[in-house]
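Key idea: predict the complex, not the pieces.
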Amino acid sequence: MSKPVYITGLGLISAIGNNVSESLLAFEHHVSGVAAGKYLPTRYSDKFPLAEVKLSNEELALKTGLSPTLSRTILLSYIAAKEAISSFSIKQLQEYKLGFISANTVGGMDKSENFFIDYLKDEHNGHLRDIVNHDCGKPTDFVAKELGLKGFITTISTACSSSANAIMLGSRMIKAGKLDIVIAGGVDSLTRFTLNGFNSLMIVDDNQCRPLDQTRKGLNLGEGAAYVVLMNEKIAKAFSAPIYCELKGYCNTNDSHHQTALSDAGNGPYLAMQGALKMSNLNAKDIDYINMHGTGTQNNDASEGKAVERIFHPNYPKLSSTKSFTGHTLGASGAVEAVFSSLAIKNGLIYPNFNFTEAIESLNFSPEIKYQKGLPIRNVLSNSFGFGGNCTSLLFSKA
Amino acid sequence: MSVYINGIGNISAQHTVDKCILKNGIENISGNRYHCIEPDYSQFVDGKQIRRMSRVIKMGIASSTLAMREASLLSPQAIIVGTSLGCMEDTFSFLSKMVQYNEEMLSPTAFIHSTHNSIAAQIALLFQCQVYNSTYVHRNISFESALLDAMLLLEEGNVDNALIGGIDEITNTSFTIMNRLGHFKESKQVTPENFYHPGKGSVAGEGAAFFVLATTQSKSTYAKILSSQTFSFCDSQEIVASAKLMLAENHIDQLDLLLQGNNGDADDDAIFNEIADSIQMNERTLYFKHLCGEYGTASAFGMTIAAELLKNEITAKKFGYALAEKPNTILIYNQSKGIHHSLTLLAAC
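Result:
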């Protein structure tokens, strides 16, 4: 048996709040972060509602003391990573073998797409400061440097499962004794690139999305950043760190069916959930809540639903998709939902599905619609699936 | 547990994809842009699929297929790719159309393949692998992150082989922009003879180097990987200390060869030279980027060189290296701008 890895810090910024406690209030008051677009300059502002962080770049810069010319991806990542480590002193963290493992899908694309407007007119045009943010490693490096996180640093990009894989790698490195403390998670900011990409696939809902619902029409794009702090028992004790939960299991699989669609049988999702259960030595009946990937697209929810049915039928745990509140934060979503899952265990929470109307006909379950707290939640599964068939499930347990 | 390199597929600016380099020696390349010598991709994918694939995805498919063929592996138990800039051709294609058509009438094809994980995904799709699949995108340690993940998987004992690769492409757009950022020397300045003359910037490179790693040795084994580590935001003393520790932990009193990522940029090379100096390897240091150019995952090409040198006596001569005898241990050191560093230690079998 390998030694347990605990989650001892949480940081989050998304459309439903600029930190962890604001986000919980949004669930409690049943307020979705999906609204008419205000900050992303796009011709679709009136057509597609977005789950934007409710601060402009200037306001984010003011809040952080960073430059407003930086990529929004950097600004969001910095805020969430800083919150995650806020109960520790950097100096103290630096005494240990430290890792910062981040994830995103499009790096500083919010700036690159501005650069390209001028660049395409003449290749000598375009502010170079807008293109130096382009690569996915840049936000990770900037935040690591700014917060003083040195040692092991890397970035993962596996589409919408990116940050779930970052958390998984962090845990594996601690279990292997290669690192003592890992700050793991991910970020993505809204960009015209992703909005137009998803729109070209015709999977963006022009209303508030309805995941796990028969009437679902697509996803709402969101943005945000989230990080968790991972430690083994010895280090957590040395820091007298607050223990939210144990990251007990995880599994990364590939659906290997199609670049942008999951198989009807949900093979990748099924294998990911089964793998996480097996690693944790838990059975389906031990799961109290599933934070579904639940994007609201026809394909994802049907495929994921089928996989859930294959494992849990007829005894379904409570389940919901928090993307109905946060939108789909892409590379950040695995970490955003890891934060929610950790809090579900720590505070006995069940998150509702926003805007739920009708159960999916082909499935035998429907999501929770009320926020509940103080329940005995022992084990939570969190699913993150992405383009390229990348599927990862994380399993959080009461410590 | 040992980790063996049992197969390599290598598309580079040299004749590595068909291994002709081992017969005919190296290509002398001039200029500031080293493009890959590419195979006929129809050997690897059927015509209909090829048309939809960008060059970098084809390079990934072909080099991973070659690595698996050499290792006689039909289906890997993990697929892990490192790419510093991913699928730029598709990314810039979608981006350009989005700007030109003012966010209207966009076909999803380029967007679908623009995601960084689409190389690993297409490999999984082609070989029908439902196994562990990941993609690392962290600058000049993207490949080493993939390597480290694979070594961790093998150590954990749930798999006994893994397909890993380092891959990046040059596109006209990426070259133009990186040139504006001062990454490259002027074309006429660079000849094969003066590649390492100190100046500002290096030469644009690209490549796809894939490896089958396994816990058991086979007749196709090149070498074993003893250790690989990355370091970020550290000073050179820490790198030197880590290199010495890595050698000591692997009971190597005298390293045979240091293979470094010098690239002709004066600032970068000063750091490389300082490290070689500090571990007393000046006399036994070789470089590899004059063969492949500089790019985020060039160290994957470096690892193919190390593996070949450890396997065949003939390699050194054909690759233009003056070595008295075949090395038994090689340490690869790469870094960029003093920020991210990697050390990978290999030994002959």
